[in-house]
Amino acid sequence: MKNNRFDNKLSQTGVVFQPLYTQVENHVKQLIVEQRWKPGEMLPNEFQLAEELGVSQGTVRKALNGLTSAKILSRRQGVGTFVSEHTNQDSLYRYYPIICDGKAPELPKAELLSLELIKVPKNVLAAFGTEGNMKVFEVLRRRILNNEFCIFEKIYLPHTYFKALEGTQELPHTLYHFYQTQFNLTVQATTDRIKADIATAEDARLLGVKKGDALLEVQRIAHSLDGKAIEFRISRCRSDNYHYLVEST
Amino acid sequence: MKNNRFDNKLSQTGVVFQPLYTQVENHVKQLIVEQRWKPGEMLPNEFQLAEELGVSQGTVRKALNGLTSAKILSRRQGVGTFVSEHTNQDSLYRYYPIICDGKAPELPKAELLSLELIKVPKNVLAAFGTEGNMKVFEVLRRRILNNEFCIFEKIYLPHTYFKALEGTQELPHTLYHFYQTQFNLTVQATTDRIKADIATAEDARLLGVKKGDALLEVQRIAHSLDGKAIEFRISRCRSDNYHYLVEST
């Protein structure tokens, strides 16, 4: 650790100074987490927010700009600023990077294979950054693109955040929207780790490929607005006619 | 095509209205392309820019915010706004997504295998969106992470943009910085298409894996600030102890 007492950002214990607009940004984010405003709802205008929060309109604008860039809010020209919904097309495609070669991005359909409450498997535990005996819902699904099964997903959801799933037999195709509307859990950030692997007999059976074919394995951790790891997902993806797309600007 | 004469954004031929700050943003970007300001150089302050461009300071600020989010500019607190350099750490890692499992991101070293001027191969032509007889430099390299060869790269550079490479025997490890400083070509956006594939005999020899092992193949097109496709790169990546990392927020 550096010994410079002005070096607050590197200090684990010291105070971190934040510009006013960052504080407002975090405050508004927290209000959304607490459902002061719900997905799809319009926020008060900048003038009203500034008055209520006791800051300048410029500061509110800067804070809302940040939340808009982060796609937490969305602006409709001449109407106002809204809490983003995961049904928003942009938002949906943002999290579906598997694309059929030579085709436009398409949202895959889902076939639910099973949904069970289990003791967390060892390979899943690390993703949630916890120890011990947590229980998770395990969801197995196949995804369909271009009229064929192309992804086999194992999805893990901590029981503590998703209690109301007990007894559920069906799930909608677009889970992030479901988490948001039913559990007040908005997926705000995802981390994907992508590897290549050889198809097992199970992959071959579920995806209609040959044992020994090359597949992509994507391990994804999804974090909510307030930074909780709420979902861990292992996707086994056909790669013959499909690719994972990353666009960086 | 829609027939609504107000639907300018969807019209191929109609005028597209842009907010003033977007026009300023594009203008400043163009000035950077033309090297009015070079990588690392400080821009005039907002007041001076506003006066020179005949717009309000607020509009300049909004334009610079956009270019800062896009990492074309970077701000140094209390100093000013600078044209980003590709030596900037953020910027370097942003484009190096192959990570050794369980380790922090590290910039791979490079071993140059060959550099030749060739007729563009068929599988490369489409990436550049052109037809016919273009010539390209083909650069073959191995990349080293964690003290082992982990990536075999084939890099294609159009002769028309990189003429001065003729006769070159050596290349620096960080090519994007080299393109920027030597050719005034700043990589502004990349598109990666990721697939899984089976190691060939060539892969096995170059990467020290076994024929039949699973590898990641990443095909990348890099675009310059003014939207030209300036590089096409095929990377064959070991996946046993490495992964491709994607963080989305």
UniProtKB/TrEMBL annotation, chains A, B:
Biological source species: Brumicola pallidula DSM 14239 = ACAM 615
Protein's UniProt keywords contain DNA-binding: yes
PROSITE patterns per UniProt: HTH_GNTR
Organism lineage string: Bacteria, Pseudomonadati, Pseudomonadota, Gammaproteobacteria, Alteromonadales
SUPFAM superfamilies for the chain: Chorismate lyase-like, Winged helix' DNA-binding domain
This protein's record includes keyword Transcription regulation: yes
GO MF annotation list: DNA binding; DNA-binding transcription factor activity
GO biological process: negative regulation of DNA-templated transcription
InterPro entries xrefs: Bact_HTH_transcr_reg, Chorismate_lyase_/UTRA_dom_sf, Tscrpt_reg_HTH_GntR, UTRA, WH-like_DNA-bd_sf, WH_DNA-bd_sf
Keywords: DNA-binding, Transcription, Transcription regulation
TM regions (residue ranges): none
Name by which UniProt lists this protein: GntR family transcriptional regulator
Range of residues in the leader sequence: none
PANTHER family from the UniProt entry: MANNOSYL-D-GLYCERATE TRANSPORT/METABOLISM SYSTEM REPRESSOR MNGR-RELATED (PTHR44846), MANNOSYL-D-GLYCERATE TRANSPORT_METABOLISM SYSTEM REPRESSOR MNGR-RELATED (PTHR44846:SF1)
Pfam families in alphabetical order: GntR (PF00392), UTRA (PF07702)
Domain HTH gntR-type: 18-86
